[in-house]
Amino acid sequence: MKKQIPTDSHFARQELTRRHFIRLGAASAAALKLRSVGADADAPAPGLAEALGTLEPYFTAPEKFRDVSRGKPLPHSLPDDKKLAVGLTRETWKLEVVADPENPATIHNPLTQKDGTALDFAGLMKLAEKYSVRFAKVMTCLNIGCPLGTGIWEGVPLREVIWLTEPRENLRRVFYYGYHNDDPKQMFRSSLPIDRVLEDPFDLPPVILCYKLNGAWLDSERGGPVRVVVPEGYGFKSIKWLTRIVLTNLFHANDTYADGNNDVDSALKTFAATLSIPKEPKPREAIPVTGYAQVGVSGLSKVQVSIRSQSAQPHPEEWIDAQILPPPNHWGHLPEGKIPTNTLGFDAATGHPRSWPMRLTMIHWAVLLPGLPAGQYTFRCRTIDQKGFAQPMPRPFRKSGHSAIESVDLKVKA
Question: Domains of the chain, with CATH numbers?
Fold first, then answer.
């Protein structure tokens, strides 16, 4: 199945020569073995240039983001007059921040519509003049292996809004809610411990009230005018169409996703998948493969591949390293095609990533397989994280984010 994943057509293709790719070889048709093969030619590896030419820009264009929104009707599909009436425009958006009436945090200055103190978009922009941040992040659904899109998200740290309420004590968790048609049965909510909101551990970016994506105002389909973005979180943590925040003394989550036996505290995992691979290559003809890897909180050190004959006797699976592609020369759908200044994780002078692969984003990889004898084969790919754990470890469980190893069948016809 072809995956609609944001990728990059502008990677430095001069890097993709035969000497830069690990190739696989067949010891025999009965028992396939892997080996690393060097090559002297400077010309691009056959087929790789064509495969790379089909890749899309690194940062996802608005129309290419996948959508898994909830609601009937979907809030972004409401007519303009309805959006105005319910606060789904920058002109009418307002955010309440109040104490939980049943388990109240002690706050001195709640922000409410009733008292005329709710935060409006102009107030958010006033905070943005001093506190705005931006960072790159891949948005991924907890139970879908395929990322939805990658972008630079811009907003105000949630903690700056929390501090406006002047909290005093008995504050253990932050509940936040998105607009879902004023229907209690459709209510979608998520939560975070107050510690994560007030402080950014392990060099993570802050949790933000997001109003821009890739330099443009956040549109309604992406959750505008304002949504939460949790850098290390799956999509359900980054509530769209934010309307209300409740400060509570409860110690546990109230996430809607908990109802489906999901792990609501799971952070992004590291995993690999293919983007393009010929399903019926010709015998002895080199096989170009491209793919991507989501770089979770555990980082990424390697992408590895294996290929096995389905007719051979079982033997231990052998893995070799694929080529992790470098940062692109052109990032794609950004103002002037450049990384905005002061984007976290990027050098301000050069616009280059300070480290690569960047956590919480994605990278691309490629490998050239040598021609194979006629037969049925299975191709697999996996990641090795920064601590040496091979996918699906260290967190292999379902309902806590995709980490299963992908298998692709190939048929080489005689």
Answer: 13-56+269-412 (2.60.40.650), 64-260 (3.90.420.10)
